[in-house]
Amino acid sequence: MSISPLQKARYAYEPKLPKILQSDIGNVAIKEGPATQSVADQEKVKALFPNTYGMKEISFVNAPSSAKACRQVVGVILSGGQAPGGHNVITGLYDALKKADGANVLLGFKGGPSGLIEDSYVEFTDEIIDRYRNTGGFDIIGSGRTKLETVEQFEVVEKVAHSHGLTAIVIIGGDDSNTNAAVLAEYFAAKKSGIQVIGCPKTIDGDLKNDVIETSFGFDTAAKTYSELIGNIERDAASARKYWHFIKVMGRSASHIALECALECQPNICLIGEEVEAKGQSLMDIVCHISDVVAARSAAGENFGVAIIPEGLIEFIPEIKVLIGELNDLLAVHADEFGRLEDFIEQFDFVLAHLSANSAKVFAFLPEDIQKQLMMDRDPHGNVQVSRIETEKLLITMVTRMLKERKANGQFRGSFNAMGHFFGYEGRCAFPSNFDADYCYSLGYNAYLLIANGLTGYMSVITGLGKGPASWQAGGMPITCMMNIERRHGEYKPVIRKALVELEGKPFTYFSSQREKWEKETCYTFPGAIQYYGPEEVCDITTRTLALEKGE
Amino acid sequence: MSISPLQKARYAYEPKLPKILQSDIGNVAIKEGPATQSVADQEKVKALFPNTYGMKEISFVNAPSSAKACRQVVGVILSGGQAPGGHNVITGLYDALKKADGANVLLGFKGGPSGLIEDSYVEFTDEIIDRYRNTGGFDIIGSGRTKLETVEQFEVVEKVAHSHGLTAIVIIGGDDSNTNAAVLAEYFAAKKSGIQVIGCPKTIDGDLKNDVIETSFGFDTAAKTYSELIGNIERDAASARKYWHFIKVMGRSASHIALECALECQPNICLIGEEVEAKGQSLMDIVCHISDVVAARSAAGENFGVAIIPEGLIEFIPEIKVLIGELNDLLAVHADEFGRLEDFIEQFDFVLAHLSANSAKVFAFLPEDIQKQLMMDRDPHGNVQVSRIETEKLLITMVTRMLKERKANGQFRGSFNAMGHFFGYEGRCAFPSNFDADYCYSLGYNAYLLIANGLTGYMSVITGLGKGPASWQAGGMPITCMMNIERRHGEYKPVIRKALVELEGKPFTYFSSQREKWEKETCYTFPGAIQYYGPEEVCDITTRTLALEKGE
């Protein structure tokens, strides 16, 4: 068996385009909107992007195109973590290129941004493209985390691009990669190199979102895959009636995925990092709250439950955030010395001696496993690897401790048996849902139209996602308009502002209006596996987050 | 949102019955086959089941029924771990009962076998039943692990049964529960109590399987759910090209689930417990083999891979099996003394001092986490809780160790970064696949016909599963014919023989013919999420195991 029955069937799926893009390419024309401004720090951002700042918002309408006929040679890269639908961005881009002119060429640069520097590429053909239609993963050309940000890198990219006669580069990535796309676009514009740069909004985390980008691709499929599993575990918990399940879900920093899973599954508890930070809740506050819920359910005869924990939670807890910051600095400054320590006890003593008094107290209080994880190797930026910290086990250990104390005091009479889970890699490469398959194909197809119309420094934008694809609108937005200035790794830089969960937003507001009921009662809902076929209301639904945000 | 769109849609699904069962109930007649014998120890089993041994195999044919008209009051229980489709056994049984006579009654006893003892029950109505059609979980009445095996228990059950006027009890469970069903049937038959007992073959583990039971229900859905996730992780591994994923899958003892997942996903490595035992492979043999595969792939530029590890593996490794046996005895005999020990170091020293020389060596060599897990609380039978032992982490730690040594010797130049996963609870309560929905509904419907025809001590049997439901055959098989005598917890007992993976069987033979290729090359297949709708070849396929066993 070389391909699965579902993969075979998915090859035949025809992604739905917005009506406006279904016309002949010659009948899709650009319509200019108002000039744009960055979301903050306008003067500073403008100064950094003299050639690409303040460009106009654009949309596509059905009218004779004014795009000049020109053979296109486009390069595309996949950047950063996998997200379902990446292959469809490429197939949409390819189909539009070939529909416009059979002589157009699409080159895929391999292994992420480094492929552009190392000139490692493949020229796409029908035969290659057809093997990846509507499939998950980024394996068509691979991905990578190299950041394109220095002038030296840009010079190499320019050389490589010219050697292939590239007219444009499409960067499929998250907020950082799109920030870099904007900087590269500015570089090419300043040098009048004739190479355009277009970005596409990717990330399962859902934190590349703003007034124009209604959602990043991959969020829909990944959140639904995690929700499938959480729903199954909820049903298991309600059947066996003897376990609590603490489920950590991916989503680097923002808690969008956790919140979406909560909206889909109605668990007893879902922690939201942004709320923890806003309310300044300490680790003990959180542990105390969970223990209260466990105790209340237990008193009602329900010695089981499900709690969703966002991967990024730990960095939102004030005293842990401080601790992690100190540890990052400490391990960077004393890397050699620390590296020579023989065992955990020596490392523990060393760290304790170098932390501030308060952080030392916090660190000493944590379970040993978590202490070890906090001292593990940093990522290339010197940050702790959050996904490797078993927050779900930390909370289980501490809630167990607290309930044991309460039991000793006669304040708790129930039982508490908990299991931890972590869902991340399970959802990043699933077959894209119909929504993501359609959305991504449209983003790629639309990216071609932005190129054909001579635009650069734009993000491919598809809007109106709350309803079906036929009514979606297509257009482009200057990336600079999503930027502000932030301090990153010690420097002030122009970056796309990350979208965290808004505590005033509709998804969180709805959640917080329901959660007390969900804590006490057992209101689980079971979304089941993503369906690609069947009734529309099952296979074509989008996320609850998007539905609530779009007021449906 | 109280129920999900998929659950709503699944309510409308009409499970497919075998053609023979689609007729009017009055036109389904019993056909007797040959008398049966137990699979081994015939004289001993016969002596223990004087009233129910040697009964005839039966099948159903379309002919006027000779069943006597009689109002039925049936009790049903769900026993042991959850398996997708349990609700459909109950709905099939209910529908058949009501179709035969609107006055028939179905009582669901709650929380597993203990419900029969505590007389905790619910009388099913259309309203209740309709909320559970084609759904996962056992939450309709809950499940439990109490074993019905003593005469005292049987006496209570008899009293409860008579108080409700029960004519039959249907026990939905695995090999142990069905063994107990046979003993209960014999007890009732000996006492001429007029209460029949029928079993239904449940377990995701797939180890309740023999010449007549082609598969236990739940295996199909659970294995497909795990395969969905494994396929997604494979695609992630092939996209990121930098991680090895070690994935442990549930399935208490037999490796059927691991093997099925391997057949569906074609990973680089899949360990099979039964083979490890047959070949007497030591832990170091296994670690060495995995290290070889990692090194060979790395030399070919592929610093990534996926390995599937059956939950029960650890008990198949000869020296670990001996160690666990010694630990079980030791912790049973010295429970109090061990319980008073203060910390890990005291426990470690205590255990080391009491183990045989060889087991002490094995124990000392294991990583500390695994040592702790091996000393954790036993299950109610005094056995180590295998699912709590992180075999995937054990192997990661030991392979890392070995490759580090090889690197120091210049024998390995690649990189090895591994992550562990465990899939179990994610699959036990999924919405049953179409196969399991149809199979379970048929098992329940068929159970009624066995009852109506006055049979007891029979298992509900549906065969011909390699093809579609229309051609399935229906009938019953005396449970005693699946039995032999085994030593369990120190006593010789009649039990249903557990079906382990047969190393001469077609599924394993196919796997072993392919695995060298899968080790070296990257031949991943991506099954994707279970589909309940769409092309037949996607939504109505059964497991690869069943397809290979049935020669298709």
The strand order across the widest sheet of chain A is: 1-2-13-12-7-6-3-4-5
Q: If interface size is counted as residues with C-beta under 8 Å from the partner's C-beta, which chains form the largest one?
A: A-B, 61 and 61 residues
Count up the helices of chain A.
23
Rg of chain A (CA only): 25 Å
**Helix share, percent of chain A:** 40-55%
Q: Helix/strand/pairing class of chain A, anyone?
A: alpha/beta
Assembly level: homodimer
What spatial form of chain A do the alpha-carbon principal axes imply? globular
Number of strands of chain A: 15
Q: Report strand % of chain A.
A: 15-25%
- Regions of chain A with pLDDT < 50 over 5+ consecutive residues? none
Sheet having the most strands of chain A: 9 strands, mixed
Distance between the termini of chain A: 43 Å
Mean pLDDT of chain A: 95
Q: Would you give an account of this structure?
A:
The structure is a homodimer of 552-residue chains. By secondary structure, chain A is α/β, with parallel strands linked by helices. The first copy, chain A, is 44% helix and 15% strand. Chain A contains 23 helices and 15 strands. Chain A has helices spanning 5-11, 19-22, 42-48, 86-100, 114-118, 126-130, 151-164, 175-190, 219-240, 256-265, 273-278, 283-299, 313-316, 318-333, 335-339, 344-354, 357-365, 368-374, 391-408, 434-452, 506-520, 536-539, 544-549, and strands at residues 28-35, 56-62, 73-78, 105-109, 121-123, 168-173, 196-201, 244-249, 269-270, 305-310, 418-423, 458-463, 473-478, 483-488, 491-496. In chain A, the strands form 3 sheets. In chain A, strands 1-2-13-12-7-6-3-4-5 form a 9-stranded mixed β-sheet, sandwiched between helices. In chain A, α8 (175-190) links the parallel β6 (168-173) and β7. In chain A, α4 (86-100) packs across α20, α14 crosses α17 and α16 (344-354) runs antiparallel to α17. Chain A is globular.
